[in-house]
Write a structure and sequence with these properties.
The chain is of the alpha+beta class. It is built from 3 helices and 5 strands.
Length: 89
Amino acid sequence: MSCCGTKRASLRRFAAAPNNQGYALAASAAAARIATATNEPRLRYRGGDAIVLRGSRSGRIYAFDAGGTLSVHADDVAMLLRTGRFVLR
């Protein structure tokens, strides 16, 4: 049957579509707006490439663009600052 091959091809096209990255960036921007509304500390990422990481204490996922700024859970701030890749804004 050809249905399995069709599904695989569809999945490849979806994974390669440039719109998927735009969706992820839009989702992280929305998360940043929500976090900003809660008055959480803001950190700026000093790296030259985008990075995605999980907060060691909160378990929250952070997606920083190169040089980007995000609100961060207060429990994760000290660990992120110790890396030397972030500065408090």
